[in-house]
Write the structure tokens for this entry.
Amino acid sequence: MQRIDKAIADFAPSQPVITLPSETSVAQASDLMVEQHASCVLVEDNNKLSGIFTERDFLEKVAFPGIAPEEISLQEVMTPSPETLGPGDCITYAINKMAVGGFRNIPIVDIDERPSSILAIRDVVDHLRYVFEDTVEDNLSNPYAAEWIDLGGG
């Protein structure tokens, strides 16, 4: 049975981790994101995470204002000092952080704040799907499950 409180280290990331220095142009970062099928890049300076640049950042801070991606660096449009998680944090903590902050991607960093992976919302949804599938299967195989009906309401 899948557990909802699984550690993030037990997840296989669904997208590649792309790290770039902050002086990289948005055009270069965007080309790499398209090439690698990634929804974000992590910005790393001095071997530490300094920011995240997402598809949403591109749309809101570059495309919509009409800025040429070749003429602007990641440092100018990234989200600086993003929220992060550690590999030992559990998925329930990640779900809370994503919901409260409105994040679709959260960088996973090691103890030295170096990025190691990205937890994407699709990873969380896939895990929850397995948790609920296992729960339903367990209830179907339990002869006493029919006696317990959840009517909702707390």
Q: What stands out?
A: Helices lie at 26-36, 55-63, 74-77, 91-101, 121-141. The first strand starts at residue 19 and ends at 20. Residues 33 and 39 are 6 Å apart (CA to CA).
